Amino acid sequence: MRIFYFLFLLFHFQGNVHSDKQKTAPFNPDKEKVEIMRVAVQRINLIIDETLSEKGIKYNSRLNDFLFTRRVFVDLTGTIPTYEELVQFVNQKMKNKRTFLINKLLGSEEYVSHTYNYFADLLRIQTKVPGQKTNSALFTGWLKESIHRDKPYNRIVYEMVSASGSMVQNPAAGYLLRDKDMKLDHVAFMTKIFLAKDIACAQCHDHPSEDWTQKEYYAFASFLGELEIGETKDIKMDRLQKSMFAKKEKFFHHPKFRAAVRSKYKNFSVADKKLKELKAEFKQITGGNQFAAFDDSDSKLPLPDDYQYKDAKPGDILKPAFIVGRPLGGTSKKSKRDQLAYWLAHPENGWFSMAIANRMWARFMGQGVAEPLHNVKLEKCANPRLLKTLSEVMVALDFDLRAFSWVLMHTHSYNRLATRKKMEKEDDYFFQGPILRRMTAEQIWDSLVTLMVKDPLRYRQPTPVSLMDINDGWTAFHFIDNLTDEKYRLVDSYTGEAVLTEGRTYNNISTDQTLTTSKGKNQLILARASELPQPAPAGHFLQKFGQSERLFVVGSTSKVGSVPQLMELMNGFTTEVLTSPDSLIFQRLQRLKNPWKKAEVVFLSILNRLPTEEEKNLLLEEMQSASSGDFSDLIWALLNTPEFFFIK
Amino acid sequence: MNHLFPEINECSRRSLLLHAAKTTLGLSILPSFSNGANLAKPDKKPPCERVIFLYMRGGMSQTDTFDPKEKNSIGGKSKPVKTQSPDLLLSDQLPKLALQANDLSVIRSLTTKTGAHSQARYVMHTGYRQRSGMTHPQLGSWAQMFLGKSHPVLPSSVLVASGNPGPGFLPPEYSPLPIGNASRGIKDLLPEIDKQQLDRRVKLAQKFSAAFSHYFPHDDVKSYNDFYDQTVKFISGDMAEPFDIQREPANLKNRYGNHPFGQGTLLARRLVERGVRYVQVTSSQNWDSMHSGTNSLDRLSNELDGTVSALMTDLRDRGMLDSTMIVVTTEFGRTPKVKSNGGRDHHPNGFSAMMAGGGIRGGIAVGETDDYGRDPFPEFEPKDIHATIATALGITGTKIRRLPGRPTFLGGKPKPIKEILA
């Protein structure tokens, strides 16, 4: 007995040693912040209470524990809860258990993965940017890490907009590098995302229906006038950087580097060839052949040749000017781009705080206080008080998105059932509860993966090693290997081992988990959306359910149904996997004897609620019929109800 | 036998299914989805309601078809001959079309910016030059964007035996439905199912959907339920009828031609008759074979002449020619002067297209090239053909320009070819 216990400990201990799994602790803000959060909830409740009573509208009915669990899981972790998580919460007897759950989920790694999906969509992240040599792993790794470490949102934006260098030097530069050779388009995306202003039309002519003129567009874009994105070799490296690269380069001659390469490429002659290649790659990456963002004071952004208005001439260089709001100080000695980043992310930039507050509200309530999210007009907002308060809360919480989510999830509105009917007009909605929402493509996919395998986030894209992290031959190898390898791969975050590369199993997976599953040429990688190539390839489940193709900000994601989508659910490979004995949900059933209990588990696992009395009768009929054997029909049927992918 | 459509034949059934998954079958019926003003009903019925776009792959020789030249030294073996229309001469390679020349017109002064097959094909399919990092939509997807779906269940555009860039940057629901083998219709797209099991499961799902659908009488939920019904119809094979050309009379099938292009064109007619707005069919013969001589010319032109004339006759018999536009075009032309081996090279500067039917004036030639097939005047580009089709479909001015956050319809400033419009 004791020996077993010892072995268990040893095993357990080793597991932890090798794990690069980030530690998770529940969200636990300091007292002062908690106080602000509490007050914020009260203020928001008060405004909505008053508005509703003014309009003579009642709140929707309260959410029970089952539905509450489903909703916060989907909203915070991007997936429906597992059977165990659900039952545990519902049976829990304690005061404030909802707060407790919210804190736990806010601290989870799934929160990072899910929040990453949201921003990946907004920032149009592509794993492989067309025309660029290296992939964007360093940037996405940086973004996930920033979310994980609770970096304030305005800080994230500041770092992205002001970033200089290549992704190797500064991973945040990935944001600007994404839009190489499309500076003017980039500006239009930027205002939609960060300022809730759509000025795109003014890129080519005065905006016909709004105030923006083409001159104003160019004046704003002039903040990026000196921005250049070029090959690293064209950029003068300062002495400091040169010496750093030289210092890092020596690790490529370390015996461990050779050992690492050899362990990957078992064949010695292949490994030796690869060794040379990798060393050369390092030189290339640090020396050139990769893109970098930098400012060149000789670069200008002149008005276009076909500029047609009388207030300026084609070729004129404009003085940078903000398109909304007012200047907010900052040192003028810094680059123009830095001035822009500073102004953008400044707490007193009301457009910026409003834009993100409104977006976050829309994420959880199904609709922004003001719509459309990318072009808010204050004069048209039906509830300006609410919008203003949300913006103030965002600033008061220092752009801490976890804390802000916490606030929204504690409001009366959030804790109500979704509104039963669709509004005729968006403006007439006063948040008696959230809007009935279909889950996003990522939420549906991640939920299905949750039903298929245990702890799907165990398998991840390798955390990129940054240049700073190189301190021996191993890290040198991983740095270069991650960065130059354009192939898709995943590592097991428990063991740190590579388990999959480019859809093929790399090492044998010695667990009871199915990481990939295949039939003929088809293969599904059962990892969460955040760990798959971005965007998912054509024909992938995610794509059919409306994942953005990451080309545009507005109207790129879709939550609309289609026949191919349902065909996938009815007859697709994904459903086949779910209704097969290998799936997690099936394995759970196998441990049970009582058919009623089995049916209940299926209900709780998929719809996250108990069957109603009427449904119990249906179940009885079903169980008596000859065809019901293994519950695969019931699993199939529940997955194919609209209830499965709506958040009610 | 000529191995046809290698790119499709190589596709497995499954990958076709994946393509199909991107299509418009059963697109949204949500009012919120429609792009507001874009979908407003036109004041009056547009002259053209549907389009059959026939694509001659590999670069159709204009000299041997729609822009014949007198001079023997450059013309090769084909000669201009008189047609039904006094204002239009066609090559003697197209005798059947010559008999219907009053109903068709020709544009002779097309130019395109590139002489490489794939780039030029891209320009002809999208109106845009290819550039990295972005794919532009094909014409049928644009039409759906501006005019809405053409049928509640059927896709709004279908591609027969051909690749084009699909919906480009538009959402997947604007995708055309690709069909590899016209004779098999959508049989290759239908999943293999255990029908009994499906029926059983669908019934069960409907029962368990009831409570939710009742509690949420919401448009989004309703539309999902509609999609379920359509999907069940689709995968149980009830949707195969519009795609099944085996139901057409044998003599009609023969008239269209017993080759994939003929059968594909017949399928196109069957589909537009049932509510598909835009069908593109690619020729089974490859005009690129003209490099090595004009020996293949008879084969090429017979296919073109036979099938297109059969289509015109068939549409006329059904009273649909007035509202259905036929377009015959290609990526670029062929050098009017034959090479020493008797072949013809790529010729992007001065080639032809034929247009007929809905919205098109018949019996004329627009634009010209000089006696040597050069100096096209006035110059038209592929995007102008698109604009012409769009105008006939009732997609005009403001609609074309107002697409929030997206590049405009067609590259640069397209001009509809007014002379050819009825």
What does this structure look like?
The complex is a heterodimer of chains A (648) and B (422). By secondary structure, chain A is mainly alpha-helical. Helices cover 48% and strands 6% of the residues of chain A. Chain A is built from 28 helices and 11 strands. In chain A, strands 5-6-7-8 form a 4-stranded antiparallel β-sheet, with no helix packed on it. In chain A, strands 1-3-2 form a 3-stranded antiparallel β-sheet. In chain A, strands 4-11 form a two-stranded antiparallel ribbon. Chain A is globular, with a radius of gyration of 27 Å. Chain B has one domain: Alkaline Phosphatase, subunit A (3-Layer(aba) Sandwich), CATH 3.40.720.10. Chain B is built from 13 helices and 12 strands. By secondary structure, chain B is an alpha/beta fold. Chains A and B meet through helix 22, helix 26 and helix 27 of A and helix 2, helix 7 and helix 8 of B.
Q: What oligomeric state is this?
A: heterodimer
The number of distinct β-strands of chain A equals 11
CATH homologous superfamily identity of chain B: Alkaline Phosphatase, subunit A
Helix-strand string of chain B: HHEHEEHEHHEEHHHHEHEEEEEHH
Number of domains of chain B: 1
CATH first level of chain B: which class?
Answer: Alpha Beta
Structural class of chain B: alpha/beta
Which parts of chain B are unreliable, with pLDDT below 50 for 5 consecutive residues or more?
1-40
- Distinct helical segment count of chain B: 13
Helix content of chain A: 40-55%
- Ends apart, CA distance between termini of chain B: 41 Å
Count of distinct strands of chain B: 12
Largest interface: A-B, 58 and 59 residues
Summarize the SSE layout with pairings.
The complex is a heterodimer of chains A (648) and B (422).
Chain A: H1 2-18, H2 31-55, H3 65-77, H4 83-91, H5 97-106, H6 109-122, H7 137-148, H8 153-162, E1 165-166, H9 174-177, H10 183-195, H11 214-221, E2 227-231, H12 239-249, H13 255-264, H14 268-287, E3 291-295, H15 336-344, H16 350-365, H17 384-396, H18 401-409, E4 437-438, H19 441-452, E5 459-460, H20 473-484, E6 489-492, E7 498-501, E8 504-505, E9 516-519, E10 522-525, H21 541-544, H22 563-571, H23 573-578, H24 584-590, H25 595-606, H26 613-624, H27 632-639, H28 642-645, E11 646-647
Antiparallel strand pairs in A: 1-3, 2-3, 4-11, 5-6, 6-7, 7-8, 9-10
Chain B: H1 6-9, H2 13-21, E1 50-56, H3 72-75, E2 80-82, E3 89-91, H4 95-98, E4 104-111, H5 117-126, H6 139-147, E5 157-160, E6 177-179, H7 195-215, H8 219-235, H9 250-256, H10 260-274, E7 278-282, H11 297-317, E8 324-330, E9 333-334, E10 346-347, E11 349-357, E12 365-366, H12 382-393, H13 397-401
Parallel strand pairs in B: 1-7, 1-8, 4-12, 5-6, 5-7
Antiparallel strand pairs in B: 2-3, 4-11, 8-11, 9-10
